[in-house]
Each structure stands twice: as structure tokens, then as C-alpha cells.
Amino acid sequence: MPHPTDTTTALDTTPLTDAEVLLLRRDFPALKQQVNGHELIYLDSGATSQKPASVLDAERSFYEHDNSAVHRGAHTLAANATELFENARATVARFVGARENEIVWTSNATEGLNLIAYGMSNASIGRGGADAARFVLREGDEIVTTEGEHHANLVPWQELAARTGATLRHIPVDDDGALRMDEAVRMIGSRTKLVAFTHVSNVTGVINPVEELVRLAHDGGALVVLDACQSAPHRVLDLAALDVDFAVFSGHKMLAPTGIGVLYGRSELLDALPPFLTGGSMITTVTLDSSGYLPAPQRFEAGTQKVSQAIALAAAIDYLTAVGVDRIEAWESHLGARLVEGFSALPGVRVLGPGVGVHRAGLASVDVDGVHAHDVGQFLDDRGIAVRVGHHCAQPLHRRFGVTASTRASAYLYNTTADVDAVIDGMGAVRSFFGVAS
């Protein structure tokens, strides 16, 4: 088992084992506690992940030894902080197959998506000049997203359409939550200016056909925005190879702290996109009447930056790299299949999305007949099992499945088969406990 600080470990597609996972779990302080008299079983990593000690130590070390504002000042601490900050950017860039100037720090993926949307809105009112012309939207133009999106990849495009007069369209999903690619082919055309979609559904675990969607969009001259929140933490991600124009993901879902996110953009696009947040540190020259802006990524990083969080994100990536992202992906695929098989065998439990035998990410959401999702979550919590309940910020997708809420179990590199079996066993007892079992 490689030590999590060894970033030179060769890639290996062999799944993790339960024994290895139990060793990894020792690195996570939050997983060493009991909840309601039971050892904690954390199956809510799709919402936010737990943090290993090495990540916590990296952030603490910065504050104890190098705390200073970055890109400002000439003293030693400022130089050290700036070096750590930019080294973290380089680490993220390598992790996702990007160049350093293509990585913009944000507070989270939601901010990154809004940054793109508001940048396009600014271009549409004439900001950015000729270089920003490809971002301009007018009446008759179309933005295409999907029925399966997280609200963060839907609401900003609704607002952009409202501000510019563009039309927002949605690729539907089938009964298993897979995109209707026949509809995508019909929908994406010469009027399409932007196609935004998730890589992996946070509700169904469906892995969308990125390459095919990118080809459809680019054939018509449209830009592509990829929501990688549920893929970057769990699978090898090469954004340059995928040929997407923009992508976003959040650190807190991949072992890092809250308050740090990443926007990826092709360098020539970032340099042309008008900024969203303005102020100090993103300018060249300022007069009382006008300002000039730096190239990307600094043009999008106004104000005091998220220095300790960026450094901690780099430490999280070092940890994931040492364990082996390929191995993590293979392990989670195994756990996801086990979840679906176990849930599908339970009377009165309906799995949302693809059924047994269909490749998916390591999560599954279910509707329990006769029991509200919040009651299911409370019942499992009494057993020390943490899951997500509600609509998971994806109301349209739940509406498509005819439910208002579901219960989601999402696994990560610190979950064992015993964890999965425990949530299946707990789910099997829910309907009897609430007196609705037939």
C-alpha cells in the first residue's frame, strides 16, 4: 500500500481491497467516531468528503509558518505563500491535464459556473470588445443543458437566458436517467452557442457520453461547459483530451476543505472572457475612469485569495494520486454495483437510474415505497449510517422520476463492502419499522 505522500506511484487499475481501505480509513480523523452508539459509516461523500490528516496538516502548516498575502509584498513570508499558492495551481493542472494558466481558483463549482455565465452576459452588453465576440448571446441564440443537471448547472443558464434573450433548451433523459442522445442530435445545431452538462449525475450515477456531446457541440460551433463535480474526485480526468472548453469542480468533494473550487478554461477563451468579479490583484493599470485587466487566471482572481484552501487542495490531490485514482474508480464501481444489486433486491425499494449490470459511479439513490426520504435518513442515522436525503439540488430530475425526494448512498475510497452491506441491510428494515411492509 503506497503512502499517501508518494506521488510517484505508477497507475494501477486493480481495485482497492477492503484491507487497504481499512488502512486508509485510519488517515481520516472524522471516521474514528461513533454516532448514536455505532461506528460511523459515512456514505454521503457525494455531498462532501471527509478529510485525511495530511490535508488538515497542510492547511494548519500554512497558517503556522507561511501565512501571508500572495502576489503582494516582497518579504519572505509573502514569497513563500505565493510559491505554495502557485505550486498548488500547478498540482491541480497536472491532475486534470491542463496548463497552469488554465486553472482559476473559485470558492466552489457554483461560483465557477456563475463566473462563465456572468462573463458571457458582460460580453453580450459589449464588454471585452472584439475578443469577447464569441461569448455574445442574443435573441434567437440557444443554450442547451439537460434534464439531469444539478441546480448549479441550470439556474445560472436560466439567468443568462433571461438577461440576453437567448432560449434555454434541455436534453431529456430516459426512464433510466440516461440522456436521450437522439434528442441531443436534434436539439444541438447552428443556433446553439453553449452546451452545459454534468459528467456524472449526482442522483443516478449515470456517466454521460462526454466525447459525443462535445463533438455535437463543436460541430455547430458551440462552447462546452462540463460539470465535473462528481467525476474529478473519483476518476482520472484529462480535460484537454476531452476537448471541453470549460469545466468546474469543488475541493470539498475530493478530500479538501470547503471554500475552494476550480474553473478550467482553455487559455485563449479565458483571456477573452470579460471578468465577473473586479477589484484589486486582477488589474494592470487603474485610473479614476477606467481599468485594464491581467490575462487569465489572475483576471478572475480579484481580492484576497483562498490561499490555505488551495494548498490543502493540492495536498488532497497528492493523497488521491498516491492511492491511485484508477484504483479508486475501480473500487467505487464495485461498490456502486453492490449498492444497486442490494437495493434492487429489496421489496418496495426503487433505484433511480440504471439498474443492475449497467456501469455507474459509486452511488445510488432510492425511493422507498410508503416512507419519506427524510424518515429513511433518520432511521439509518440511528444506526450510525450517514446518507443524503432530499432532492440533491436536482428537482427537475426527481420530477422526471415522479418523486419529490430520494435517499442517496455515495461511496468513496474510505468505504468498505461492509459499509455498503450495512446500508443495504438498514434499507431492508425501513418499511417494516414504519409499518408499511406488505
Structural features:
38% helix, four-stranded antiparallel sheet, alpha/beta, 2 domains, seven-stranded mixed sheet, Aspartate Aminotransferase, domain 1, 16% strand, disordered N terminus, 14 helices, globular, 438 residues, Aspartate Aminotransferase, domain 2
SSE arrangement:
Elements: H1 18-25, E1 34-35, E2 38-39, E3 41-42, H2 53-66, H3 76-95, E4 103-106, H4 109-124, E5 142-146, H5 155-164, E6 167-171, H6 181-187, E7 192-198, H7 210-219, E8 223-227, H8 239-242, E9 246-250, E10 261-265, H9 267-272, E11 283-286, E12 291-293, H10 307-323, H11 325-344, E13 349-352, E14 363-368, H12 373-382, E15 385-386, E16 388-390, H13 395-400, E17 406-410, H14 417-433
Parallel strand pairs: 3-15, 5-6, 5-7, 7-8, 8-9
Antiparallel strand pairs: 1-2, 4-10, 9-10, 11-12, 13-14, 14-17, 16-17
Quick overview of this protein structure:
The protein has 14 helices and 17 strands. It has helices at residues 18-25, 53-66, 76-95, 109-124, 155-164, 181-187, 210-219, 239-242, 267-272, 307-323, 325-344, 373-382, 395-400, 417-433, and strands spanning 34-35, 38-39, 41-42, 103-106, 142-146, 167-171, 192-198, 223-227, 246-250, 261-265, 283-286, 291-293, 349-352, 363-368, 385-386, 388-390, 406-410. The longest helix is centred in the N-terminal third of the chain and has 20 residues, at 76-95.
